[in-house]
Amino acid sequence: MLPLNTPFWGLPCGVPRFWRLRVAKDFTKPKYYIGQTVVHWAKVKETEVFAHVDVLGISWTGIDWQYLVNLPENHPWFRANDEEWIWADSCDLKLP
C-alpha cells in the first residue's frame, strides 16, 4: 500500500490530480485493522462461542465496515477448504 504522502501530482507519473480527492466524507474510521487479532462472537444452538481471529481484510458496505476474518479449526463454523474465512460485522467482533 502506498503512503498518503506519496507525491502523485500529475506528470512524470501521469496520475491526474483528482486521485488525491476524497471519494466520500461520511466514512468512519474502521475499528479494527488488517493483521489485528480480535475476538469473534458467534451463537450456535443457544450457546455463545468466542474465538480469537485475525483480520485479513476490510470492506465498506455503504453503511458500516465489514471485516474478513480467518476462523480457527476449533470454531463451529470452520469447514476445511470451504469456509475458512468469513465476513463479520463490527458488532460481532471485540478487542481481546
Question: Brief description of this entry?
Answer:
The chain is mainly beta and 96 residues long. Helices cover 0% and strands 36% of the residues.
Mind explaining what this structure looks like?
By secondary structure, the chain is mostly beta strands. It has a domain at 37-94. It is built from no helices and 5 strands. It has strands spanning 37-44, 47-60, 65-70, 85-89, 93-94. A hairpin with a 4-residue loop joins strand 2 and strand 3 (65-70).
What is the H-and-E element order?
A: EEEEE
- Determine Rg (CA atoms, Å): 18 Å
Which segments are poorly predicted (pLDDT under 50) over 5 or more consecutive residues? Answer: none
Between the first and last Cα atoms, what is the distance in angstroms?
27 Å
Number of strands: 5
Task: Summarize the main sheet.
Answer: 5 strands, antiparallel
Q: Give the percentage of residues in beta strands.
A: 35-45%
So what's the overall shape?
globular
Biggest sheet, strands in spatial order? 4-3-2-1-5
Helix content: under 10%
Number of helices: 0
Mean pLDDT: 76
Structural class: mainly beta
Key features of this structure:
single chain, 96 residues, globular, mainly beta, 5-stranded antiparallel β-sheet
Question: Helices and strands in order, then pairings?
Answer:
Elements: E1 37-44, E2 47-60, E3 65-70, E4 85-89, E5 93-94
Antiparallel strand pairs: 1-2, 1-5, 2-3, 3-4
